Amino acid sequence: MKRATDIVLSLTLLIFFFPILLITAVALLITSPGPVFADTPKRVGKGGKLFYPYKFRSMIVNAYELLKTDPKFKKAYEEQQKRGNYKIMNDPRVTPVGKIIRKYSIDEIPQLVNVLKGEMSLIGPRPYYPEELDNQQKKYPKTRESVSRVLSIKPGITGLWQVSGRSELPFNKRIALDAYYSKEKSLFLDVKILAKTPWAMVSGKGAV
Which of 24, 34, 164, 172 could form a disulfide with 61, with the two C-beta atoms 3.0–4.6 Å apart? Predict the structure, then answer.
């Protein structure tokens, strides 16, 4: 039932959001040189399998590597390492258009294609970077069991942590919410999360 729902809703949402997708793509092409989609590393999916999540590029080209190698991003990199959620407040790599699409989660909409491909679900845990999982488990060793539980199901475009504070939550609290969903997942919980998602997008609360 969940897979059938994913397919039907993803197709419906892609049609509904098509004008926004088109406008975003054009805005990115006009305002920022580089590809429309983010050039970030693969994420960890179900069973630890790596996959590429489609996202609109909200940062400068090669932002992931430049953060670690370019001296002008040293301060931002140090902040990332200190924070418990791998996010950077006022990230200097984010483009003007990127700030808008990140705040309202427009950059995530192309992941509906990942749902159709069976790599993601509409609702599920956040897909993490391999490096992020390794580093955060060292920082929060008690989260290892939660991480294993999270990787037992498909990651989602939206989920319990996304409607419960988003980037305001540190990794240990985020992974705990994802683990809770992985254990207690049900149609009722999915409907509840889905109902809260539009407000999380429109309000932009917790977005970085």
Answer: 34
Q: Is 21 helix (H, G, I), strand (E, B) or coil?
A: helix
Q: Across the strands, what pairs with 156?
A: 121
Provide the b/e sequence for 17-27 (b: ≥16 CB within 10 Å): eeeebeebeeb
What is the CB-side half-sphere exposure of residue 147 using CA atoms within 13 A?
Answer: 19
CA-CA-CA-CA torsion sign (103, 33, 26, 126)? negative
- Angstrom distance (rounded) from CA 168 to CA 189: 22
- CA dihedral sign, ordered 168, 171, 174, 177: negative
Q: How far apart are CA 207 and CA 41, in angstroms?
A: 21
Is residue 66 a contact partner of residue 93, using CB atoms and an 8 Å limit? Answer: yes
- Tally Cβ neighbours within 10 Å of residue 185: 18
Q: 3-class DSSP state for residue 50?
A: strand
pLDDT at res. 135: 87
What are the structure tokens assigned to 81, written together?
């390492």
Q: Which residue has the tokens 């956040």?
A: 126
Average pLDDT along the chain, 208 residues, taken 10 residues at a time: 94 96 95 90 94 94 87 82 69 92 92 97 93 90 94 94 76 92 93 89 63
Q: Which pair of structure tokens corresponds to residue 173?
A: 């609290």
Q: How far apart are alpha carbons 137 and 141 in whole angstroms?
A: 5
Model confidence, pTM? 0.86
